[in-house]
Backbone:
């Protein structure tokens, strides 16, 4: 009986994460269009309608899905069949599974149970997310190799080079966070950010690790392969690793990019923006500095935490899209130089500085 | 080997250094785009328009009142064309897009009338010379109609009957009658 409930709880958590990530990823295609339009003084896609109901263009993701599913599914004659078919799935799978260890709330106590609001509890949760993020590039490399197309191969190679230079910078830039909060478990890191300086300023990662935040964000955007680091795609020059893909297979690569954006937003939230922490919200209620206390029931506190997490991830997605629609693309060599000559040394410097401060 | 000269730190080199640092410039850029985003969102949320684009065909950009749109043939009180088939417009037309066949008018006070009056708007350059040349004020370009189209070159040729049926645009510059339907489609029916 108890096992069944445990299973049910685990399933519910996974379902929540999957539903959240997939829906947000799908919605991001709409947000991307609308946000870019608003940033550029335009209206954006608004023509898809159901019986004249336009709903500010919300039907466009649906129309896209129908279009992609009904399109001719083309495969080059000389493509490596198995790898060609597997590549989009590899991309989407690893992008989806990356969110598993990111906590979306503290412990929920229901019916004598303590449920940690996190799909998978791993002591080395951060490493898991990175493993999934870097595995994601295999899909891209497979696509580049299996397409039997020189441009696709170039794109795949670029993706691999980008991933290596970005991944090392990501790993090194979050070392500072792990040192400050003393754990590799994302739930522990999120809890650690519930502390306060002088009882007022929340000890969020962005304040304790500002340099680490900038480095992580830059490298994180690079690992999503989106503008300004989209030279694996390089729309204007090589079209990139998915040049031979059409229909839903292409759609899955696009999805993977959006899902990776969500994962990076979730990671940034968990590591630097306090995770599910609401400022001054403790386990028993809101403690506003100055002595004001507003007691809240346990369920309300948990609901607030989950809402805060969702809000932060959405805000972070907005910010990532803002960057995507502001900056032009780096050239391949520029991005390599940025990765190896700026991000990596700076993140090592960040580790040294953090260690020095912690020793004092 | 020439020794490397150290450049003096001028304003220009400082500027280059700042740009090479990326972060400041990136933040300035983000500030600009985010500024546009929030200004436009504020307009949208308060029920105003936060875009500079026009949502044609629901929304039409305001056009000049003297805009030369699709031609129309002005009618007499009895509905017949005011045109006397003098061939002035056909002669002046630089694009040779007007084709008139003149015929004897039953009324002796009117010399001739156009049996055929075709304008190939596919050739027309909308210069308005025909309107200027007309001694009878029989052809005007004040319909305000811009949205005429056809599926073939033949469909772009508008006959006397089509042109006679058109009306002048309203005070707001919007057409008061629908643009002529595609003749090619009509032929298919």
Residues:
């Amino acid at each position: 009986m108890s096992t069944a409930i445990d299973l049910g709880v685990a399933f519910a958590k996974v379902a929540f994460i999957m539903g959240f990530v997939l829906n947000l990823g799908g919605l991001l295609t709409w947000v991307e269009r609308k946000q870019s339009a608003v940033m550029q003084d335009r209206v954006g896609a608004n023509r898809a309608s159901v019986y004249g109901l336009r709903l500010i263009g919300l039907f466009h993701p649906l129309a896209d899905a129908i279009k992609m599913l009904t399109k001719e599914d083309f495969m080059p004659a000389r493509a490596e069949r198995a790898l060609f078919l597997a590549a989009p799935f590899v991309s989407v799978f690893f992008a989806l599974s990356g969110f598993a260890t990111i906590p979306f709330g503290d412990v929920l106590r229901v019916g004598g149970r303590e449920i940690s609001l996190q799909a998978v509890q791993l002591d080395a949760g951060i490493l898991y997310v990175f493993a999934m993020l870097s595995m994601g590039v295999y899909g891209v490399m497979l696509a580049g190799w299996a397409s039997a197309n020189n441009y696709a191969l170039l794109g795949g190679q670029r993706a691999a080079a980008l991933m290596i230079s970005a991944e090392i910078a990501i790993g090194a830039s979050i070392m500072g966070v792990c040192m400050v909060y003393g754990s590799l478990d994302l739930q522990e890191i999120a809890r650690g950010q519930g502390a306060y300086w002088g009882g007022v300023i929340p000890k969020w990662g962005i304040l304790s690790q500002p340099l680490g935040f900038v480095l992580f964000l830059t490298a994180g955007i690079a690992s999503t392969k989106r503008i300004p680091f989209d030279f694996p795609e390089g729309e204007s020059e090589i079209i990139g690793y998915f040049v031979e893909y059409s229909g839903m297979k292409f759609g899955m690569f696009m999805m993977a990019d959006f899902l990776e954006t969500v994962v990076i937003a979730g990671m940034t939230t968990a590591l630097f923006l306090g995770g599910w922490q609401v400022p001054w919200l403790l386990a028993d209620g809101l403690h506003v500095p100055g002595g004001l206390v507003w007691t809240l029931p346990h369920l309300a506190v948990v609901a607030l935490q989950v809402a805060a997490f969702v809000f932060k991830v959405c805000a972070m997605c907005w910010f990532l899209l803002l960057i995507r629609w502001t900056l032009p693309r780096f050239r391949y060599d520029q991005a390599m130089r940025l990765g190896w000559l700026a991000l990596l040394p700076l993140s090592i410097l960040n580790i040294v500085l953090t260690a020095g401060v912690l020793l004092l | 080997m020439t020794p490397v000269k150290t450049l003096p730190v001028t304003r220009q080199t400082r500027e280059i250094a700042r740009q090479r640092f990326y972060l400041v410039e990136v933040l300035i850029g983000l500030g600009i785009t985010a500024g546009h985003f929030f200004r436009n969102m504020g307009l949208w949320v308060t029920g105003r328009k936060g875009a500079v684009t026009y949502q044609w065909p629901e929304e039409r950009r305001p056009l000049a009142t003297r805009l030369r749109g699709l031609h129309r043939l002005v009618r007499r009180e009895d509905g017949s064309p005011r045109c006397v088939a003098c061939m002035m417009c056909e002669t002046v037309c630089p694009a040779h897009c007007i084709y008139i066949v003149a015929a004897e008018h039953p009324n002796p006070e009117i010399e001739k009338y156009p049996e055929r009056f075709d304008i190939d708007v596919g050739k027309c350059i909308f210069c308005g010379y025909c309107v200027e040349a007309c001694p009878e004020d029989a052809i005007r370009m004040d319909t305000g109609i811009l949205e005429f189209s056809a599926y073939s070159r033949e469909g772009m040729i508008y006959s006397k009957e089509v042109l006679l049926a058109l009306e002048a645009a309203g005070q707001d510059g919007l057409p008061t009658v629908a643009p002529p339907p595609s003749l090619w489609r009509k032929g298919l029916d």
Observations:
- Helices of chain B lie at 11-20, 23-45, 88-92, 129-133, 160-164, 183-188.
- Chain B touches chain A at residues 22-23, 26, 29-30, 32-34, 36-37, 40-41, 44, 50-53, 55 (CB under 8 Å).
- Confidence is low (pLDDT under 50) at residues 184-189 of chain B.
- Strands of chain B lie at 72-73, 98-104, 112-120, 139-140, 157-158.
